[in-house]
Amino acid sequence: MRTRIVVVAAAVAALLVIGVAVCLFSPPRQIAGTSIPVAGPPILGGATYVTTSTTAPSSTSVAATATSGTSGKPSSTADVTQPPPAAPPPAAPPTSQPASPNASGQITFYGAADNDPPGSREIAYPGVMHGQAGGTGTFEDPITFAAQDGRFAPGTRIYVPDVRRYFILEDSCAGCSGSHIDLWTGAANDRGIVRCEDSLTRNGSRPYQLNPPAGLAVSPGDLYQNGHCFRG
């Protein structure tokens, strides 16, 4: 009996020694959710240890989250589409020079319907610029006009402000004298062109400019075209 007691006591003592040794040499463990180490044997059952940080997110993280776009990345000035630069204003159209009339005289009008011979575009000086009466009224392509023989040299240019066209002497006018000039109205042969000529004719002298510069205001084309007469 005593022998059993001694054996049992020895076994208990051995267990106590083992338990003390385990407590002394086992690594400290942490309680979940804290960073405080706790001495003692490890918790069995495969538990893992998670240290929960209680530090608030930095201001940089908050700013990045607040400025994130739909793509999930922080926005930046490079991501913003800049509007295209404004187009420069259109250049102002060139302004015409003012006319400076330096002559005046009676101004009448004629066309194919009342030319000599009637219905034709024949002119007295076909070698000047046009082979027959015509032109558009620009500085480069003036319209035919007629005057008294010897009054102006063939090829003389004039500008008539009342009808805003340049003219060139290519014909002679038997009924003209002095500074009287006769302006080509168009190649039409209907009665409309005669009425147009009458409506454009005024009593008394009217101004025109001899040897005008380029760049004066122009309304190009025949004074009578497509049944319509020029209206200044």
**What's the CATH topology label of the largest domain?**
Barwin-like endoglucanases
Number of strands: 11
Assembly status = single chain
> How is the biggest beta sheet arranged?
7 strands, mixed
Which second-level CATH architecture of the largest domain applies? Beta Barrel
Taken together, the total number of domains comes to 2
Question: What is the count of DSSP helices, taking H or I runs of 4+ residues?
Answer: 3
* Rg: 55 Å
- First and last CA, distance: 150 Å
The structural class is alpha+beta
Which strand order does the major sheet show? 3-9-6-7-5-8-4
Low-confidence stretches: 1-7, 31-39, 41-78
Order of helices and strands: HEEHEEEEEEHEEE
Share in helix: 10-25%
Q: What would you call the shape?
A: rod-shaped
**So what's the CATH class of the largest domain?**
Mainly Beta
What is the average of the pLDDT values?
78
Strand content: 15-25%
Characterize the structure shown.
The chain is of the alpha+beta class. The protein has 2 domains: 1-52, no CATH class; 103-229, Barwin-like endoglucanases (Beta Barrel), CATH 2.40.40. The protein is 18% helix and 18% strand. It has helices at 2-25, 59-66, 191-200, and strands at residues 29-30, 37-38, 103-105, 107-110, 143-147, 157-160, 165-172, 181-184, 206-210, 224-225, 228-229. It has a 7-stranded mixed β-sheet with strand order 3-9-6-7-5-8-4. A two-stranded antiparallel ribbon has the order 1-2. Strands 10-11 form a two-stranded antiparallel ribbon. It is rod-shaped.
